[in-house]
Amino acid sequence: MNAITITKDTPKTTLSPENKTAKETPVPSKLSRADDDSNFLQNAGTQIRAMVDRTIQRNIKGLNYLISSKPDVGLTPKDVLIERGTMRLYHYHPMADEVYRTPILLVMATTNKSYIFDLAPGQSMVEYLLKAGYDVFVLDWEEPKPEERGLTLSDYTQDFIPSAIRRITEETGEPDVSIIGYCMGGVLSLIYAATHPDGPLRNLICMTTPVNWKEMGLFHAWTDERHFDVDHLVDTLGNVPGDMLFTSFDMLRPANRPAGRIQLWDNMWNDQFVASYRLFDRWSQEMLPLAGEYYRQTTKDLMWRNKLFTGDLVIDGKSADLGNVKVPIMHAIAKHDHIVPFSASRPLLEKVGSTEKEEVILKGGHVSLIAGPNAVRRLWPQIDNWLGEKSV
Predict the structure, then answer these.
(1) pLDDT tens digits for 225-253?
(2) What are the φ and ψ backbone dihedral angles of 35, each rounded to 5 degrees?
């Protein structure tokens, strides 16, 4: 009997391209894994050293920040043409070989110093305009003295601005002037223009200027006529203290200042960030008091009665109806302005009687619209483009 042997064949497997690749991929060796671990540790060590160095720098620079003096501001060379009570008129030295015929007067808000127009070289609206060929003047304010508590809208719009313009025409020999007004400086400029329809004003630019005061948000709520006794406040204090005004502005966004301090600490190692922070922080904290009667009048006539918006405002017997404003006008509005809300500022061009008017709406806030890196790229070139052809 023949023995039968049964042999099991091992099935043949055909490798797919994927299997071939997997089969051909070498298994990581212990050496390559060790290299990866070494690189990871080296990178982690570098990051830790950088973090430690940054922390040391932050502490050293933080100490320097606390003991350092205030940053220098308003460094562009200028002459003082008028120094009278709260009023100052500056004339800046030219920086261009050719200068436009029509000079510019920048009118500052009455709550703050005008060096927001001239923070630092490279961050100066004044410097930018000078280099573009403009003859630049600035109407600035000092702290009103106790004896100036009686100043009113009439003093600012029928005396201070006209006096500045007369001095400018004497200085330049030119018959007219362009005005750029910021915030409340824009309101004063509008009232001047409306009450001097035949005056020497050639062009007007308003920036973040409130027109419809019923839309002034928290400011309107806090000064509600039913609860806010402005007469008692002014009769008791005389001039309204700068600290009180600073607190009211701060309360619009109470978390901003603590958040800003945290951001400052996180960036204390960054010299450029710290330098910029110090400039803006100094300006925001150096808030000026307001003359008592001026504050009383703006509260009653503008905030309560909204007379600038309705056209019922009368100054020294002259109508300040915005329809009287006929000169070419440009209005710059910040989309995210928490001080002068968009709805308070937007109606301006509807109210003026000018046939040539331009509205510029830009991202940014009340201050970043006119100062800082965004202003350098966005607003200042638009002002130059619009104003240049109207200044020859």
Answers:
(1) 999 999 999 999 999 999 999 999 888 88
(2) -65, -40
Output phi, psi for 297, to 5 deg. -70, -45
Answer whether 109's CB lies under 8 Å from 184's CB. Answer: yes
Q: What is the C-alpha to C-alpha distance for residues 236 and 295, in angstroms, rounded to an integer? A: 13
Q: How long, in residues, is the chain? A: 392
In the chain, what are the domains?
78-388 (3.40.50.1820)
Structural contact between residues 204 and 351, judged by C-beta atoms closer than 8 angstroms: no
> In the structure encoding, which two tokens stand for residue 208, read together?
């973040």
Encoded tokens for 288 = 């000026």
Of 209, 192, 34, 186, residue with least CA distance to 108: 186
**CA 371, CA 361: separation in Å to the nearest integer?**
15
CB-side neighbour CA atoms (13 Å) of 279: 26
Q: What is the per-residue pLDDT across 198-232, written as a single tens digit (0 to 9) for each? A: 999 999 999 999 999 999 999 999 999 999 999 99
Residue with tokens 């200044």: 391
β-strand partners of 205: 180, 330
Cα 27 to chain centroid distance, Å, stands at 62
Cα separation values, 56 from 50, 60, 263, 268, 278, Å:
10, 6, 17, 10, 21
What does pTM read for this prediction?
Answer: 0.83
